[in-house]
Design brief:
Strand content: 15-25%
Number of helices: 5
Helix content: 25-40%
Number of strands: 5
Strand order of the largest sheet: 2-1-5-3-4
Order of helices and strands: EEHEEEHHHH
Distance between the termini: 48 Å
């Protein structure tokens, strides 16, 4: 069964017809030609497919496209302002926070979403009870690692990724 949906992808309104079983990841890559989100595990375990859905990070391989009708999707391609890179993108480049680059789009989208969560005061398992429940969370290296734990890097660039996110947070 097919359904017609509308998505705002990286600021551009897009209409498409999808099989109701199509994941958001497959709709983005196969139907719309958006190649930033990567298919890694296809089970929501690696984070290579992470995008921002209405500003919140989501594993697009687990989200049905039909359920996202009318929503805004931001991929790594949509973070930059023209030729001006997003601060997290600039920081990843400056810290050499990638090797093969396969996980990088998902890492960057997840970092952008995670920084927004921390600014909003969302706690993590590392935050502890001393944190102000209504204020921003201090992003130590341990806090960043915990919050980014759903994004895997096969090359092991984690040290640089944590440094890049820490700089972008400042």
């Amino acid at each position: 069964m097919d359904a017609e949906i509308s998505l705002r992808v990286d600021g551009v309104q897009r209409r498409l017809t999808v099989d109701t079983r199509t994941s958001l990841l497959d709709a983005l890559r196969e139907r719309l030609g958006v190649m930033g989100p990567k298919k890694g595990c296809d089970h929501g375990q690696c984070g290579a497919c992470t995008v921002l859905l209405d500003g919140r990070r989501v594993n697009s391989c687990l989200a049905l496209a039909v359920a996202q009708d009318g929503r805004a999707v931001t991929t790594v391609e949509g973070l930059a302002d023209g030729q001006d890179l997003h601060p997290v993108q600039r920081s990843f480049v400056g810290h050499d926070a990638f090797q093969c680059g396969y996980c990088t789009p998902g890492q960057i989208c997840s970092a952008v979403g995670m920084l927004a969560e921390a600014r909003a005061g969302w706690p993590s398992a590392v935050t502890g009870e001393a944190a102000d429940p209504y204020g921003p969370v201090e992003l130590s290296a341990a806090e960043i690692r915990e919050r980014m734990s759903g994004n895997l890097c096969r090359c092991g660039a984690y040290t640089h990724i944590v440094s890049a996110i820490g700089e972008a947070a400042r």
